[in-house]
Amino acid sequence: MNEKKYQQLEQQITPKPPYVKNCLTAFLTGGAICLVGQFVALFYITFFDFTERTASNPTVATMIFLAMLLTGFGYYKKIAQFGGAGSAVPITGFGNAVISSAIEHKSEGYVLGVGGNMFKLAGSVILFGVFSAFVVALIKAILVGLGVVSW
Amino acid sequence: MTGLLTGCSTSVGYKTLDTSDTKGEKVEALIKEDSRIKNAVVLIHEDRLIAGLRVNTFERFHKRKIAKEVAKELEKQYPDLKVTVSADSKVLLETNKLIEQENKKNFTKKMKKLSALVKEET
């Protein structure tokens, strides 16, 4: 059996992933997480001195905290199994990535294990998040400098 | 908790309170003229004017621009007032609360705080 034949066989046998169903569950899960986030934001707007604009920071922090708790107690993986990308794309996926790798490498010690591996995946999220924010801000700064748009 | 649940669906319509009773109706008429705005709460006290707007759902993309336009118009008509206009639901919520409390003593203090809050960036 040569390589080509094997690939053909493999493609025949591999079950087709249910794309439509996956999209639907991801949509529902992501939507549910965002709904919770909206309530958290509303909570901060109603009971604290936050406006719609400024409430986003504490909301993000709260959502990450909740996701971290859920990860620690083992519930987030159940959500992720159902929702797939719907649970990974919102900010809660970031909290999950941090804590799950921290738990995974706990046996290697606190410094080289937890500390060194905690941001294995989340580190690249932070890096490219900061970098893309820098690029976008640079573009906007140039546009403002040219007088095309205003802040 | 009830505030949390009804926070989005409160339809206050148009509400205006002018403690000096001179400009209130005119301001309300001016805001009503704008078809993009569906709810508005206006409070005028001493030399301050605060207007909290709620725009139609799909106008939300331009809500800051709408608020800016209304503010500009109001500033032009009443140059002696310190005008704060915002389409942020916090302003609508708090201004509505102020009007319902009817405690005129802390109006100035609370209005100053709200104006400062609107200017906050992060």
From TrEMBL, chain A:
The keyword Disulfide bond does not apply. InterPro entries: Spore_V_AC, SpoVA. The chain crosses the membrane at residues 24-47, 59-76, 125-149. The keyword Transmembrane helix applies. Pfam families: SpoVAC_SpoVAEB. It comes from the Bacteria. Keywords: Membrane, Transmembrane, Transmembrane helix. The gene is spoVAC. This is Stage V sporulation protein AC.
